[in-house]
Amino acid sequence: MALAQYFCELCLTLSPEENNAHDFLRLFLNSVFYLSNKKKDELFLKAVYEMRACSICGYMPNLVGCHRCKIYKSPNMKFMIEKGNLVCEKCVLSEELTKAYTLTPGLLDSLRHIIYSPIEKLFSFNVSEETKSALSDICEKYIYAHVGVNFKSLKFYKSISQI
How many CB atoms lie within 10 A of CB 104? Predict the structure, then answer.
């Protein structure tokens, strides 16, 4: 219930004001469906909902490749959360290292799937426990960096779920 409340609070904060919010509503309903039927893990659902909701509402990060050299994949891509883009290990500047989040190839693939996949296939992937935890953490940090809201429902959810 606490995680569903967080989804509702995110929905109220991010929901598009235009008439056509079909994908946003579908994301919300599918997330709550999977949560209520325990068909997917909570941390997985939280991460998917956070990042896709941001993407739908205009806060989509650019995860196509390094924003400097355009390389698509490198063993340790750096995600610049505040800027919303990738930098490869060759192009990252020393002053950016403290603000960069290192992405393993699996984590990068997961983020790309969440952002770029058709909504019908959004929940059709699995991640390891380690990746799931990192994915949840990075999506939460991304939400905070771009929306700037400390969600009370998220704080409550974390207090009762030991994450």
Answer: 15
- Residues in contact with 147: Cβ distance below 8 Å, sequence separation at least 6, in sequence order: 13, 14, 54, 59
Domains, the chain, ordered by start: 2-161 (1.20.1440.120)
Q: What does the pLDDT look like over 28-45, one tens digit per residue?
A: 999 999 999 988 999 999
- pLDDT tens, 53-79? 999 988 999 999 999 898 888 888 999
CA distance 45 to 125: 11
Identify the residue with better confidence: 163 or 123.
123
Q: How far apart are CA 11 and CA 31, in angstroms?
A: 12
- The helix/strand count (H/E) of the chain reads as 6, 4
Cβ atoms < 10 Å from Cβ of 117: 14
Contacts 24+ apart (CB under 8 A), 143-152: 143/10, 143/50, 143/54, 145/81, 145/82, 146/54, 146/59, 146/84, 147/13, 147/14, 147/54, 147/59, 149/13, 151/6, 151/9, 151/10, 151/13, 152/9
